[in-house]
Amino acid sequence: MSKGTVVLAYSGGLDTSCILVWLKEQGYDVIAFLANIGQDEDFEAARKKAESLGAKKVFIEDLRSEFVEDFIWPSVQANAVYEDRYLLGTAVARPCIARQQVEIARKEGANFVSHGATGKKHGIPVPVTPKAPWSMDANLMHIRWVRLSRAPADLYLMTKNPEDSPNTPDDLEIEFKNGVPVKVINEQEGMSKDSPLDIFSYLNDIGGKHGVGRIDIVENRFIGMKSRGIYETPGGTILLKAHLDIETFTMDKEVRRIKQGLGIKFSELIYNGFWYSPECEFVQHCINKSQENVEGKVQLSVFKGQVYILGRESSKSLYNEELVSMDVQGDYDPCDASGFIRINAVRLREHHRLQGFSSTKQ
Q: Between 20 and 30 A from 43 (CA), which of 108, 127, 333, 354?
């Protein structure tokens, strides 16, 4: 007799294939759910594999557009980067998959949901061999390779080696509205993209062509251990550089200082699996508010593994050329700085007076 029905977030890889077999052994009926979030996958082959391992039903859902609009775009608004380097491609995909998984569970009247768990292989075919002893996670945003020594040159799939990339840069203009890209133009190619999925896919192509977005890091997992990862995030890296530029151009200094802290917190919440938490909802609300005036166009060049900002323009710019000019007086009087200097000097004089007092007593 069945213990109930489980909707399994299934990929066809090692972890989810193992848990599918284990769930069947424990007496559960399994519905396999495959999310298309932009990975290079033979979905029909994965369907057949799930069925051969005992899945009662298999659902394949195309989530690429909502992945970009509902999950990648908020990460762009936040400048979400975990521990200063990781752009969260795997972590930000999980809440996208989980949302649809729960929806299927409700429609099918399932009792449980499940994800993968590493274990013994049970004779399940997996793409891991002694010659290639690593696992890979891929989606529209990135590819992650784990449990590696030094990466072989032929490992990378989304990005060219910068040394082998074109000798001519691609110059792009990215337009933002409310902190998210609404259009990308490549005048050299006569190319313009304006839907979220098309924009992100095109930036992946351009970034990949020029070897942008490769990192090799050790990161801190939520449970306390450190993990080695090699990542390719071409489109996300381009957008991070462009968004940082237009944000600084249009956002008040003190608002941005607070928003930077919120971005770090948002990144930690995503990494640790708290997208659907009240604190993450609150942080997202604050970040959304901060993006109301983040609009305009950023011109940039993508070349040999790098993204170079060329310029920016915005009707919401806080940059006042006359105010900062060395030639035009403007509204700022340099004499006003004298009081500012004296006030700040009070604290510093006291600090150094005490430092001097301490040193004389030693």
A: 108
